[in-house]
Amino acid sequence: MIDATAPLLSMRAINKAFGGIPALSEASLEVGQAEVHALIGQNGAGKSTMIKILTGYVARDSGEIAFDGSAFEARSPQDAQAKGISTIYQEINLVPYRSVTENICLGRESRRFGLLDWSAMHAEARALLSRFQVDIDVRRPLMRFSTATQQMVTIARAIGFKARLVIMDEPTSSLDEREVKVLFDVIRQLKTSGVSVIFVSHKLDELYAVCDRVTIMRDGRTVRVADMKDVNKVELVASMLGRDIAQVAKSATAFGGRASHIGDVVLEATRLNAGHKVHDVSFSVRKGEIVGFAGLLGSGRTETVRLVFGADPLRSGGFAIDGKAFAPREPIDAIARGVGFASEDRKLEGIIPDMSVAENLTLALLPQLTRAGVVDATKQRAVVENFIRSLGIKCASPDQPIRELSGGNQQKVLLARWLAMSPALLLLDEPTRGIDVGAKAEIQRIIKQLAEDGLGVLMISSELEEVIEGSDRVFVLREGRNVAELSHDQASEAAVMSAMAHGETEAALGERAP
Amino acid sequence: MTQLDLAPASPARKRDWRPRIARHATLAALIALVAFNFAFTNHFASLQTLYVNLTQVATIVIVGVGMTLVIATGGIDLSVGSLMAISGALAPIIFLGKIAPIGEIHLAVGVAMIVAVLVAGAFGWFNGWLITRFRIQPIIATLVLFIAGRGIAQVSTNGNLQPFKVPAFQWIGLGRWLGAPVQVVIMLVLVVAAMWALKSSLFGRQILAIGGNERAARLSGVPVASVKRWVYCISGLCSGIAGLVVIAINSSSDANLVGMGMELDAIAAVAVGGTLLSGGRATIWGTLLGALIIQLVRYTLLANGVPDDVAKLVKAGLIVAAVWLQGRGRT
Q1: How far is B104 from chain A (nearest CA, A)?
Q2: Which residues of A touch B219 (CB under 8 A)?
Q3: Shortest CA gap B235–chain A (Å)
Q4: Any idea where the domains of chain A sit in the sequence?
Q5: Tell me: the pLDDT tens digits for A320-338?
């Protein structure tokens, strides 16, 4: 607004690798004076690494950063804050038990005769908050207030530090609609007072509501920079996923052709509601069918699948398995009904790193291998060797610790953990994430084979190709709602992307158009 | 070579000696201590010295077995000493006939032992319940009984010392079975049983799975809450047995003193033994060795005229060394 030609922040040719794996390659980001700049991309695109480098959490390998016209180097987030860049995270990271005033003034307290000058600090806190029409008792502990108010406090704190640039990392993820409106007002105020904002969000509508420009990242690179008014939502999605909008031709994954023997309904889910992330989602999975869940990050795919497995509490709605009501309260209930679940986070929720391949593989099956409390080691061995052979798991021996295996082989062990149970339904959250190309094709072939053998599969994938080619039916989720159900023939890349972006398929949009 | 090719090259492979030392440091230290004593301590090479050391270490090992299981789940149990006091206070009340006189002394002693140990087990189960039901951190949850447990023991005896002379009962602390002190036999039975359970039973596998990755364990259908409650219950039962052994040796039960500081001795034995304090890897054998080392260090220093206070410093040094080696041993 003030002078668009001299940017406030310019990050150029940033490179960063973690343990030899590049997270950023020649990435760039430029934010103008008093500009609200959207930063978007899929998981692993490099957004957060970019922000962490800017705020001094991690050091870059190479690249230049200029802030306010001169070279910029932050040694720590505190240092960045002192130099005018404040970050507001998804989870509020203040001190919940201390008062609002303390949280706003922490690190730059007013002192008089060596003592804290409380009245001055309270007055300052009140003044800062009043700029956003927030009128609260600043002496009460922060945790007494709603998330939205806490966020305002964080922003007030940033302003108190004379921030020139405020980074907001998915600030709306835990806010309701009204609170989002208030936040947007605050962002606009920041802008008029000359502060720039980097706005990270997966909710595309929000970008159009507050952002001036957008930087799209993919695979550690900056793939597109544009004015918000010049791009439509489908183009945003296409850029994030790396798709040419005109390209609708299907390339080959290892999934091959369609399943021929789709049977009765295994799982019926009706009007599921839970937390902030799942609203009225209904779907079904049949025997021998691969059902895909597509959607952007934060669309509620994982949250929905975890409900089926009893991993998170359901607020309302219900399930039926093989036509009989099913209400899992714990994963163990779901397992008893023949449901298996492989989490998207292998390290955190999949493997037990110190245990052997054999122990990891038989973890869920173990009660069935046990007689009178004693594990039948011979039987266990037989099961393990059988799966190592049939899935082609590469390990030195069944006794090798699983942490020493490659990602693809770990994933095969986790698949085997469920296959050993002879399940009726398998829930796979990003089954091929972080796996090299060869192992990926193998895992896709295994999934396909399982479906042909009559297993019902529910698969989440952020890779368009995988979810479209692999699935017999695709459900598209958007902001916690099920917005489209597409048969394999209807599920073109264009249709899925358009549903991810607008919440409707292009065909439906066309019908409504006059 | 083909085997190595399959595993990703980890930097730790180059410095292979450290985990190896960590793995065998406990045993090496024990052997060194024994060798030192053979050389320098008078009258060390006698069956009597062996039994003296073993009887003194038995209670630590008995409690340490339960503690190892607790720590294997990633928890900790501070209440063991207080549970020993409860069991130690309860048993004499019963076999001395203070509640209801039981004519047959063997029956009275049997009932007293079983009830005392079961009550300690029930309190242990209560620890597990606090931890799983309200998601309280184990160190805080067991702190409740660490403080209150000794109070319960004192109240139930009105704060009085309970002296007794009941050979049928004191057999557990003073008797011999096949020539070996009874509590040493109990200790060995518990050690072998726990080693077997950790290795071969479903329960043992589930304990290690929870300690190794609790979220993954839950998502694989491990009944996390129930396993944890049982583990704390077992720790309580072990403490109960140890409490009986202590009062049997002393011919009296003093609620103020029974099991005092035991939680630290047991945790030290587990740590020195090489069990990972963050859970997921556990060695009962190591706990036994760890307890023996701590005991032998104390004995060595005392036998050579070094005061007990200094022995405590050495014990502290041992723990630091063990934990340091553990940190090195992990990659």
Answers
A1: 36
A2: 309, 311, 331, 341, 343, 349-350
A3: 19
A4: 9-231, 265-512
A5: 999 999 999 999 999 999 9
Q: What is the pLDDT of residues B67-89, one digit of tens each?
A: 999 999 999 999 999 999 999 99
Residues present in chain B in total: 331
Test A331 with B219 for CB contact under 8 angstroms: yes
Q: Is A364 on the interface with B (CB under 8 A)?
A: yes
Distance of alpha carbon B127 from alpha carbon B78, whole angstroms: 10
Cα B240 to Cα B119: distance, rounded to the nearest angstrom: 8
- Whether residue B6 and residue A394 make contact (CB cut-off 8 A), yes or no, is yes
CATH code at position B190: 1.10.3470
Is B12 among the domain residues? no
Distance CA B250, CA B254 (A): 9
Tokens of B182: 């009874």
**Which residues in chain B have Cβ-Cβ distances shorter than 8 Å to A396?**
3-4, 6-7
What gap in Å lies between CA B320 and CA B314, rounded to an integer? 10
At residue B103, the 3 state secondary structure works out as: coil
Chain B residues in contact with A411 (beta carbon < 8 A): none
Residue B228 is assigned to a structural domain of this protein: yes
- Does CATH place domain A9-231 in 3.30.930.10? no
Using an 8 Å CB-CB cutoff, list chain A residues near B202: 366-367, 370, 373-375
A9-231 and A265-512: same fold? yes
Say which residues have a Cβ less than 8 Å from residue A35's Cβ, sequence separation at least 6: A1, A4, A8, A191, A196, A197, A212, A213
For the whole model, what pTM was predicted? 0.76
Nearest CA in chain B to A394: B6
Cβ-based burial of A43 (10 A; exposed 0-12, middle 13-18, buried ≥19): middle
| Whether A375 contacts chain B with CB within 8 A | yes
In this structure, which topology does domain A265-512 adopt according to CATH?
Answer: Rossmann fold (3.40.50)
Kindly report the nearest CA distance between residue B201 and chain A, in angstroms. 4
Measured between CB atoms, which of B201, B213, B218 is closest to A331?
Answer: B218
Cross-strand bridge partners of residue A316 = A273
Interchain contact, B7 vs A355, CB within 8 Å = no
Phi and psi angles of residue A16, each rounded to the nearest 5 degrees, phi first: -155, 130
B113 within a domain of the structure (yes/no): yes
For B242, the domain range is 23-32+44-329
Number of other CB atoms surrounding residue B20 within 10 Å: 11
Q: Do B203 and A373 touch (CB under 8 A)?
A: yes
Query: Please, what's the b/e burial string for A63-96 (b: 16 or more CB within 10 A of its CB; e: otherwise)?
Result: bebebeeeebebeebeebbebbbbbbeeebebee
Number of domains chain B contains: 1
In a domain, B173, yes or no: yes
Model ipTM value: 0.85
**CA torsion angle for B159, B164, B169, B174 (degrees, to 10)?**
100
Q: For B17-33, what is each residue's pLDDT tens digit?
A: 555 665 677 788 888 88
Query: In terms of CA atoms, which chain B residue is nearest residue A378?
Result: B200
